[in-house]
Amino acid sequence: MHVQIFLAIAVFALVAAARFEDQAGAYDWYKQHIGIVSSAQFHPSKPRVCVTTEQSVVACLNLRDGSIAWRKPLQALGAAPSVAYVESLNSLVTASGGYLHAFDLEGGLKWQRKLPTQTAALVAEVQGKATEKVSGAILAVQAGAVQVLDAADASQLSKPHQLKGLAKDNVVTANGYLVAYNTGSKSVLLASAASFVAGDAAAEVAVEAPLGLSASAAGGPAGFAAISDDGSSLCVLQLGGTGDAAFSCQRLDALVPDLSATSPLGRKLIATSAGFVLVGGDAGAAVLAAGDGQLKLLRFFAAATAASAEATVGDDAAVGLVEGPSGDKLRLLVVSVSSGEVLQEEDFPAAALRRAAHGAPLQPSLVALGAFRKKDKSWGVRALVVFRCGLTALLQQGVVVWSRDESLATIGQTLFVDLPANGTALKGDAGAKADINTRIRYQVLGAKVQLKLNTPAEAAELLELRGLLSDKNTPTRDVNGFRKLLLALTGTGALTALHNGDGRVLWSRTFPPDAVPMRLLQWRSYHDITHAPEVLLLREAHPGAYVAAINAHTGEELWKQPLPHGVSRVVPVPAPLIEGSAVQSVYLLVDHTPAPGAVPVVTLLPDTQASQAHFASSQRSPYLFWEGSQPGTLQGFSLEAGAAGAGIAARLAWQVALPDSVLALATRDPTEPIQSSVKVLSDRTIKYKYLNPNLLFVATGLANGAALDGDDSTAVTAHLVDTVTGRVLYSQSHAGARGPVTAVVSENLVLYHFRDVESGRFVACAMELYDATPGREFSVLDYLFNPNSTQPVSSLTPTPIEAVSQSYFSRIVPTGLAVTRTEQGITAKQLLVITNTDQVYALDRRWVDPRRPKKQKLTQDEMEEGLTPYQDTLPFSPLSFATLDKQVLGLRGVAVEPTRLESTCLMFVHGVDLFYTRLAPAKGFDSLEDDFNYALLIAALVALSVGAVVMNYMTKQAQLAWKWK
Amino acid sequence: MADLKSWKMDFESLIPDRKSQSDPPGYDASIAKDPIGMLSSSKAKDKNALARRQQALYAKATAPIKQVGMMCFMAWMFGNSIQIFSIFMTFNLISAPVSAIMSSGEVFPRDEEWKQLDTLTPRALYCLVNLGQLIFGLYKLSAMRLLPSSPSDFISTMPVPPVLEHAYPAL
Where exactly are the transmembrane stretches of this chain (chain A) (predicted)? Predict the structure, then answer.
């Protein structure tokens, strides 16, 4: 037992990738974001603004500096939650991802309630008439089901209702009613919220609108209003009055003549207590008052670009309108909703905002207005303005108090590229040069700290100097390839270049909403240092599909080429095309296929003679495969290169129908470097790794989320499919298992996780594949002297597979898998497990070695091979988290890039938060640490030589003295 | 340090090194050790001396056996693990016999005076003994798995075989 404990401790000591306290932040950085704000509410008593974001985060920001006071992720990341602020309880109720949550404004979760389905839900406070006293009741509407809940404790105030008619595209609450309609349709359903609260059989009233209604609608005390589908009219439904509710539509050109000429896109309606505010994109805003079922224009603000919801400023109900930014001014108007008068007017400098947005156009998309009492007892206003580029800023008393660039919370794709070489540094980003005295001071302090002769102040100074002197932030490439430019394509339509040293933005380029690129791809890199690498941006949606090459160092667009068809898939061809000193990436673009069974149209990008020749140069015609349009099918197509510009002919080569639904698919990265194709066991026997790149891992089983009925047994089956022939090479089944399945294929290892139904735990199954060709001989002489001794392999004559597999329970719940990658592939690999807690766990590959012997006492041979005794559960060490102690909220992707040092690779993790670090899966065996103290080394050498000289002299003196005795 | 005595100067000290002091004229060390040999007949002297010299040579040739045995025993005691002492030991096991065999000519010089003396056989014997140690050293190396004796030692950098067909995933 003691031996086991000792062994465990020794093993953990080996794998610990932990950092010392003073190393925190030396190789890593972490940036917290909240996402693009979709709704905002000022805290009634504290200097805070509480927001919900499109990335499904609820957060409160400090009004003084914009720091995050607290934030909570909601279940479904990726969609703005429906939110209701219950004023009487000071709580935010959100509906997202099939759950209702109520938070108090201090970040405490008050309650959580599951909704029947996962679909989008609406949550709203019941706004009855003041006499009805239904304060604190909320309505949750989801797919026609209505629940009335107490916002304080989620107790049901009345029995749930099921109204089929409410299951429509748009559900709006207006003056105590629920208004539901489908976009473009004329029929509108009305249901009284009060009747739900009372538990009565809800009275549904169907109202016919004169025109089809668009999704731009708003409901408030003044009733319900929607812009007609054709954008010509504004239709209003007065509610709460006596008699039948009826729509009245007014033509916009009569109502607001200035607005009608502009494009109907981007029009937005905001309900106020007296009427509505119609914001026409960038074309101005009209404050409208409702009366007698008709709307009346109070005032039109031609320069307004956004409007806030109604807020109380002193005794007035007012909305905040933002004008501009035009020139260097951004103007905030506080406009009374009842009279249209401008109550207050403030100008803000736009230059700071433009700088913070990295040059992106500033188009306000959301404004929240808050009032506060100034010191002289008059009322002042502050406004939280959210711009389309993701910039969130707080404006107050003529200054931009703070701004946050939240566009990086929406990163979709990333790419590491080389920085410019020395001398061609990026403009305006010259690193601070430290003088020699500072360097000497740094070395001396380092020596002092190492010898523990320092004071705490000196230790702090050392840390500061380390940051100052570190060359990790220099905007040029380094010998080891540690410094890289990190290109990120964000959901706000910006391509941003970050320096991987500290995550600062070097340049950013924003695209207009109708030309937002969907994909960021490698395009052209050069071996000579004078050329900047080029990246490719691709927009798939037709019309407007295009490809454009961007200079990765400056963000300049080199060329742009529209595509005649939309693109459904982009397939990289692994072998790049070498053109002189340039390395050109080649892609296959699969056009949108009209019918599911039709043959896809494939074009080559770039479509040149050279690329066609390169494509046709492989010995046999290439294949293409994907998941078929029918669920559970896989299709492979053989491709035939034609003349340049003629496209590539694709022919259906094979089709596989799998019995269950596909839970996971994984292929090996074809560019993954592999050092050796054999594995030598401790008894000197040779095992040939099965390294067929045309291998697809498919896990099938009961669909995720599907109900498990009764004693029906469920199983996850893993198949290995050859993607050239469609042949199933191997399959194994796990009884009593179900999804979700995450899988990764690296070298000859397949690792996949599934859930064991009985124990409720996740199981990691590792499968190592070996070539099991019988009688395969190896001749040393042949290998050494015959250059043709390695025979090419073909999928058409398949080699038998020997699969060694082993399953382990996993303590962590995986949601994704990645693997480290180094320059030559010699360094032992680590598997990067993305956990459900939004962290990344680095698991050494040896822990999932299927050959781990099932005994405690290992033989000499087994120990020499680095095997560890089998345990049913994978080891879990808190020190093995690659994300250290950080949580990358809403983790969406992990990007790994090798450096030129074999031991090290770079990892960038992005979600709502960003995290970057260096990984050394087998420790830094080929480099000294960055903070290696050269001064101490030199001092020691000098001291030794001086000592030697002195001792020599002293010996001579002593000898002479002795001889004279 | 040996002659670090109080320094004094007299005639005796003119002799630079007492050890290399030359023998008096006419003094023969061999005759001084074996006065009878001088007196016996030259033929008998020759025969006995030859046999004795031959015996001495054989004794010299087999002298390293004990040493080799000791070394092998020690090497065996150290085991097959790779650590600094066993590495030194094994290096010594191999280098010592090689250098001994290389310099065996100096150990068994051809005596011009005794032409009939057989130096070749004792020298071969000497080499054989040392070869024994060398073989043990190599065995030791092989036991430590430092000898490239199996095909797997040549294969570790075998490249990945090329693939004739390629299929591109479009998942």
Answer: 934-955
Closest to B151 (Cβ–Cβ): which among A621, A627, A780?
A780
- A149 and A232 share a domain? no
Instruction: Say whether pLDDT at B42 is over 80.
Output: no
Number of domains in chain A: 5
Q: Where are the domains of chain B?
A: 64-110+117-147
Separation in Å, CA B122 to CA A438, A897, B100, B126: 73, 67, 14, 6
Whole-number pLDDT of residue B4: 46
Mind listing the pLDDT tens digit for each residue in A699-750? Answer: 998 888 777 766 567 889 999 999 999 899 999 999 988 889 999 999 999 9
A353 belongs to a structural domain: yes
Contact A708, A763 (CB under 8 A): no
Q: Which residues from B are below 8 Å from A748, CB to CB? A: none
- The verdict on B3 touching A (C-beta cutoff 8 Å) is no
Please give the DSSP secondary-structure letter assigned to residue A470: -
Res A595: pLDDT? 66
d(CA A125, CA A196): 12
Q: Are residues A317 and A294 in the same domain?
A: no
Q: How far is A521 from chain B (nearest CA, A)?
A: 15
Q: How do residues A327-346 score in pLDDT, each as one tens digit?
A: 888 899 999 888 888 888 89
Q: Tell me how far apart the alpha carbons of residues A908 and A916 are, in angstroms, rounded to a whole number.
A: 4
Chain A neighbors of B162, CB-CB under 8 A:
790, 792-793
Domain span at residue A139 reads 34-162
Domain boundary among A301, A335, A370: A301
Mark yes or no for CB contact B168/A625 under 8 Å. yes
Report the alpha-carbon distance of residue A416 to residue A481 in Å, rounded. 11
Judgement on whether residues A196 and A270 belong to the same structural domain of the protein: yes
User: Same domain, yes or no, for A153 and A40?
Assistant: yes
> Looking at the structure, do residues A329 and A256 belong to the same domain, yes or no?
no
ipTM score assigned to the predicted complex: 0.78
A76 and A89 co-located in one domain:
yes
d(CA A414, CA A897): 11
Instruction: State phi, psi for A287 to the nearest 5 degrees.
Output: -95, 120
**Contact B154/A620, CB-based, under 8 Å?**
no
Asked if B159 lies within 8 A of A790 by C-beta distance, the reply is yes
The shortest C-alpha distance from A72 to chain B (Å) reads: 33
Does this model's pTM top 0.90? My answer is no
Q: Is residue A686 part of a domain?
A: no
- Omega of the bond prior to B148 within 30 degrees of 0, cis? no
A/B interface, count of CB pairs below 8 Å: 114
Would the CB atoms of A691 and B160 count as touching at under 8 Å? yes
Express each pLDDT in A790-845 by its tens digit: 788 888 888 899 999 999 999 999 999 999 999 988 899 999 999 999 999 999 99
Chain A residues touching residue B163 (CB < 8 angstroms): 692-694, 792-795
Residues A242 and A331 in one domain: no
Q: Is residue A502 part of a domain?
A: no
- Cβ contact A694–B7 (<8 Å): no
Is the residue at A394 inside a domain?
yes
Residues A138 and A38 in one domain: yes
pLDDT band at A594 (very low <50, low <70, confident <90, very high): low
Token match 């990691």: residue? Answer: A764
Listing DSSP states for A497-510 in one string gives EEETTT--EEEEEE
Total length of chain A = 965
A237-241, A571-575, B39-43: range with highest mean pLDDT: A571-575
What's the confidence (pLDDT) of residue A432? Answer: 52
pLDDT at residue B19 greater than cutoff 60: no
Q: Does B169 touch chain A (CB under 8 A)?
A: yes
In the structure encoding, which two tokens stand for residue A666, read together? 């994984």
Contacts of A790 in chain B (CB under 8 A): 158-159, 161-162
